[in-house]
């Protein structure tokens, strides 16, 4: 009997501690800025990440690394350390009249790395 209670307790503890918050989605944008020095080209790269509202500090990495590769020969060029440049909550401030229930509140926290 003690063995069964121990196994059930272990199972309940493992279920309770296995929940985690993850990002909801995101995308990369890039913009060509023109020629650089030598044969290099210059780009502005932006990562936009959508995550749960009011994430804890452990969920926001600042800075993050962008790894840059040469697509022609698939060789590593460099890691670039990139900071958060903007962060805001995407929220709804009023209800839609055709939908019942409260729809107001925060939907996502949006974070930009540029």
Order of helices and strands: HEEEEEE
Q: What is the quaternary state of this protein?
A: single chain
Using the alpha-carbon principal axes, give the shape.
Answer: flat
Contiguous low-pLDDT stretches (5 residues minimum) are none
Strand order of the largest sheet: 1-2-6-5
Helix content: 10-25%
Total number of distinct structural domains: 1
> What's the tally of helices?
1
> How confident is the prediction overall: mean pLDDT?
80
Give the amount of beta strand, in percent: over 45%
Major sheet: size, sense and barrel closure?
A: 4 strands, antiparallel
Output the radius of gyration: 22 Å
Structural class: mainly beta
Extended strand count: 6
Distance between the termini: 58 Å
Break the fold down into its secondary structure elements and pairings.
Elements: H1 2-16, E1 23-35, E2 41-51, E3 64-70, E4 75-82, E5 84-92, E6 105-113
Antiparallel strand pairs: 1-2, 2-6, 3-4, 5-6
């Amino acid at each position: 009997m003690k063995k069964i209670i121990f196994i059930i307790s272990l199972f309940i503890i493992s279920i309770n501690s296995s929940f985690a918050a993850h990002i909801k989605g995101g995308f990369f944008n890039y913009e060509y800025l023109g020629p650089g020095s030598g044969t290099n080209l210059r780009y502005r790269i932006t990562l936009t990440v959508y995550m749960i509202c009011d994430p804890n500090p452990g969920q926001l990495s600042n800075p993050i690394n962008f790894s840059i590769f040469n697509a022609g020969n698939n060789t590593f060029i460099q890691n670039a350390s990139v900071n958060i440049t903007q962060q805001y909550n995407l929220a709804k401030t009023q209800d839609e009249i055709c939908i019942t229930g409260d729809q107001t509140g925060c939907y996502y926290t949006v974070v930009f790395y540029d």
